Amino acid sequence: MQPEPPMPAGGGGSTSAAAKPVAASAPMASPSSKATARGPRAPIPSDALFGGAREVQISHGGVLYRLKQTALGKLILTK
Q: What is the spatial order of strands in the sheet that 75-78 belongs to?
């Protein structure tokens, strides 16, 4: 079975390098029921989320949340 070719970005039929990251990142941006059917994803280290900051903003379902690290290393998620 052959893999499907990636969808071009912008619908212009272009096969530029910019189109490939969009197709590759689509499952990460919006997980489908297929992804959850395979089981949980690998844990994401908090350092990867925070990148040295003490707070990050997370958009979920059109709502903006804030994830903060406390001085004791705990995590607090607020709307």
A: 55-60, 63-69, 75-78
The structure tokens listed for 52 are 């040295």
Is 65:55 a contact under the CB 8 Å cutoff?
no
**Per-residue pLDDT tens listing for the chain (79 residues):** 555 545 444 444 444 343 333 333 334 444 544 555 778 889 999 999 999 999 999 999 999 999 999 999 999 999 9
The model scores a pTM over 0.85: no
* Domain ranges, ordered by start, for the chain: 1-40, 42-79
Q: Architecture of 42-79 per CATH?
A: Ribbon (2.10)
**Is 46 within 8 Å of 69 (Cβ atoms)?**
yes
